[in-house]
Amino acid sequence: MSAPNELALREEMIATGRRMNATGLNQGTSGNLSVRVEGGFLLTPTGMDYDTLVPGDMVRMRMDGSYEGHREPSSEWRIHRDILATRPEVGGVLHAHSMFSTSLACLRRPIPAFHYMVTRAGGEDIRCSDYATFGTEELSRHVLVALEGRLACLMANHGMVALGATLAGAFKLAVEVETLAAMYWRALQVGEPVLLEPEEMRRVLEKFKTYGQQPARGG
Question: Which PANTHER family match (predicted)?
Fold first, then answer.
């Protein structure tokens, strides 16, 4: 199957941005999306309502930080650029100010092994990065550290980031992370959840490698 053309990717970005807000994963003009393309990546523009976007509003970024198009890129372009530059398996990046993930991030609290589905983010926990001013190189460095060996992280006093082989995969994981954040937040209202042992989390990580529908066998 051939890769989607660039127009289709731009349209998918707009649809995903609108879906983020419609599902409550994001609010207003906050958050941003990127998709890898040849020679760089496509990025949502800064400070625009997702409902008003058209394909031409997506910004085509190069890895050196330069860009083309009639819109200014998201202020968080460094995070997207640095993730895509260091993680060749990633094709889509989603950043959102989701309610529960951000609430935990404001407490500088990672999501621990309170539920086995935490492993869907790639490890035994979902880390929270250190804080830095939005749009800075320092923030990008902090996020990269929190994402080591992971597909998602919280961002201190800011929001969350989710990665995927595709933008659709990043969105699916972001919904999962926000659901886990909501569960953890609610559990904390009663007490400290019982955490699963590292051995169990490693066992689950291994099981998820073959989880779900497998390709049909011939014959």
Answer: 3-OXO-TETRONATE 4-PHOSPHATE DECARBOXYLASE-RELATED, FUCULOSE PHOSPHATE ALDOLASE
Residues 6+ apart with CB under 8 A from 192: none
Token reading at 86: 């260091």
Which residues does 115 contact at the CB level (< 8 Å), separation at least 6? 180, 183, 184, 196
Residue with tokens 């997207």: 80
Closest CA to 167 of 5, 6, 12: 12
Identify the active-site residue in 11, 38, 76, 148: 76
Is 76 considered catalytic here?
Answer: yes
Domain 6-209, classified CATH 3.40.225.10, yes or no? yes
Alpha helices (H) in 35-147, listed in sequence order: 77-86, 99-106, 137-146
State if pTM tops 0.90: yes
Would you list the DSSP string of 18-47? HHHHHTTSS-TT--EEEEEETTEEEEPBTT
pLDDT tens digits for range 22-57 = 999 998 999 999 999 999 999 999 999 999 999 999
Compute φ and ψ for 64, nearest 5 degrees: -90, 5
Domain boundary assignment for the chain: 6-209
Q: In this structure, how many other beta carbons lie within 10 angstroms of the beta carbon of residue 23? A: 13
In degrees rounded to 5, what are phi and psi of residue 132?
-155, 160
